[in-house]
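Appendix B. Raw example, untouched.
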Amino acid sequence: MKTIWDAATQREMHDRIARLAWDRPAAWGSFTAPKMVCHLADSLKMAIGDLPVRRKNLPLRYPPLKQLAIYLAPFPKGAPTAPELLARQPKEWSADVGDLQALLDRVAAGGPSTRLVEHPAFGRLTRRAWGVLIYRHMDHHLRQFGC
C-alpha cells in the first residue's frame, strides 16, 4: 500500500504534479486542473490543521467502514467533499502548483512529528491511515487529469 510517508512515493507525486497542464480536461467530474490543484493543496492544509474543516457525522467515522474506505475501496468519482476544500479560487497556475508541491514537502518531511488533525469525515486516524489516505486522494485526482 503506497503512503505519502515513503520517499519514492513523494517523488512520484512530485513528478505527476509537474506533468499537469492548466488546460488539460478532466476524464470525469467538474474540476478544472487549476481548481483540482487548489483542492489538493487545501486538503493538505486541512490535514495539518492550517485549514479548519467542519466535522461531518458520517458512518465513515467508524470501523470497519473507515478502514474499508481508506485502504480498499476505490475512490468514487464525483463524491461530495467539504465546502471548505472547494472554496479557494485558482490564481496563477505556476504559483498554485508550487504551493501544492511545497505543501506536499511540508507534510511529508515533517516525519513522525508532523501534527495531523482529526479528519472531518473519517475521524481520528493513525499516522499510517493518514499517509495512505493522502496518497490515495492525490492519486485519484491526478488520474482524473491523466497524470
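End of appendix B.
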